[in-house]
């Protein structure tokens, strides 16, 4: 963010169009399974960065349907998000150390939380991934959504977390739920998973 500013590139995404495509896929889950005529969706944006999801929701006239909360582990991101968007609720939190309350929100979405592993091994990143999915699923009343890099690519980058479908589905079905959807229909080298309560 210090290098590129408050935009997609500053959040380490290649371009804004792909980022908005990710936001659409992640939020489609909440809109599909909610009764929008009766109440707003309580949505937690975990790994919110500087709150670019709010820009997407506002630009697409969807923010009126959402009761938004942004959480990030980075104090810099939360400080900047709070200054940039003072009318929204942002919180600095490590959810593995300071756990979220059970059933505290309708949906939790995690955009990019599991795409980069940087210097971690695959096993270390998978351990982090399983802990996060377990904790966030407890905290959502209706479900969670997240994206992760696919292994169905021409080549894998060492700094990214490419998670095979076999490893993913074995973990989810044994430890979380059999009620899930995998989306690979949006043209990026990743997939998005919806897990319903």
What is the topological layout?
Elements: H1 16-32, E1 41-46, H2 52-59, E2 66-72, H3 75-84, E3 89-92, E4 105-114, H4 122-139, E5 140-149, H5 165-176, E6 180-183, E7 190-196
Residue-averaged pLDDT: 94
> CATH homologous superfamily?
Vaccinia Virus protein VP39
Largest sheet: 7 strands, mixed
CATH class: Alpha Beta
- Give helix and strand order, one letter per element, not per position: HEHEHEEHEHEE
Distance between the termini: 35 Å
Alpha carbon gyration radius: 16 Å
Tally the structural domains. 1
Low-confidence stretches: none
Provide the descriptors you would attach to this structure in a database record:
single chain, 197 residues, alpha/beta, Rossmann fold, 5 helices
Structure, described:
- The chain has 197 residues and is α/β, with parallel strands linked by helices.
- Helix content is 33%, strand content 24%.
- A 7-stranded mixed sheet has the order 3-2-1-4-5-7-6, sandwiched between helices.
What would a concise description of this structure say?
The protein is globular. The chain has five helices and seven strands. It has helices spanning 16-32, 52-59, 75-84, 122-139, 165-176; strands at 41-46, 66-72, 89-92, 105-114, 140-149, 180-183, 190-196.
